[in-house]
Please model this.
Amino acid sequence: MNSFESWFCSSSLWSSVSRRKLLPWMLSGYALGEHVLEVGSGPGAITDELSRRAPRVTSLEYDPRFVSQLARHHKGSRVNIVRGDAARLPFPDNTFSSVIAVLVLHHLKSPQEQNEAFQEFHRVLQPGGSFFAFEIREGWLQKAIHVCSTFVPVSPASAFARLTVAGLRFARRRSVSRISPYDSRGMHCLTNLALTR
Model:
């Protein structure tokens, strides 16, 4: 992530929006189960809320700075912080009741790496477990925000086929345009996916 992304994802604004609006909307009608894998936790904007919604949370993060920060914050809690790569998860098969990835997939370096991550999510999910994703679409503003950062958007048109190949089944999809008051043309178009194993 570049410095702007790190700042924004660490902000109280993003934490508040994630906790009060985003997660309730994403998870509406679904239970996380006993053990949640949070992929790409970053500075932990949703980690605390996930720990209120599930008995156990494992947060996977690649950046060692965020791993250290999260480990200090969650020391002695039901949250386990692990440094790792989404495309090569360090967990046994059938470990998690759900996997959640919020604004993470576009940070993987290629569509192939994203496909590997999808296969890994399927592998570590328990039978009947759910995968939830929230991603931004490609656009000029998103490209500008990701200057000097990895930005490989997941096309909604191909996402379902790619996830199905990985073994996940469609449960629900919601798309929302113009969630940002700053853009009336839908430049901040976001997609929420819920799939099951």
In short: Confidence is low (pLDDT under 50) at residues 174-191. Residues 61 and 67 are 6 Å apart (CA to CA).
